[in-house]
Write a structure and sequence with these properties.
about 120 residues, mainly beta, four-stranded antiparallel beta sheet, 8 strands
Length: about 120
């Protein structure tokens, strides 16, 4: 499927010149109830400060037509949750029955998931 860049943003994640680019992208029609084989949604980050590290934080690739529920990932925000001067990244996972939020932090040169939570619609 064709690559659709839905969100791109760059920021100094550590406050010390550690620039990262955050990308949310989809392929195919992930907004349908029954995605086609090969449709995908992902969020990745790339360190733009010369180290060249790219990390996929969330990704859903549909392996068969209509066999999986469509999942859509977006960047929900970049904010300093714990007031330590290092920004955290919030990724939202949307699906038919609810939402989840995943929170990541750049620690010692690596991305770590801090926590996640969500809700399901009954």
């Amino acid at each position: 499927p064709k690559l659709n860049l839905e969100q791109t943003l760059s920021c100094d994640i550590t406050g010390k010149g550690e620039i990262v680019t955050i990308i949310a992208a989809t392929g195919g029609d992930i907004n349908t109830a029954e995605p086609a084989k090969g449709d995908y949604s992902l969020v990745l980050v790339r360190n733009s400060s010369g180290k060249g590290l790219t990390k996929v934080l969330q990704c859903e690739v549909h392996s068969e037509d209509g066999q999986q529920e469509a999942v859509h990932y977006t960047v929900a925000g970049v904010l300093d949750i714990d007031n330590d001067g290092v920004l955290e990244l919030a990724v939202e996972q949307k699906y038919h029955w609810g939402r989840q939020r995943y929170f990541y932090k750049f620690i010692d040169g690596n991305w770590a998931e801090l926590f996640h939570g969500g809700y399901q619609i009954d």
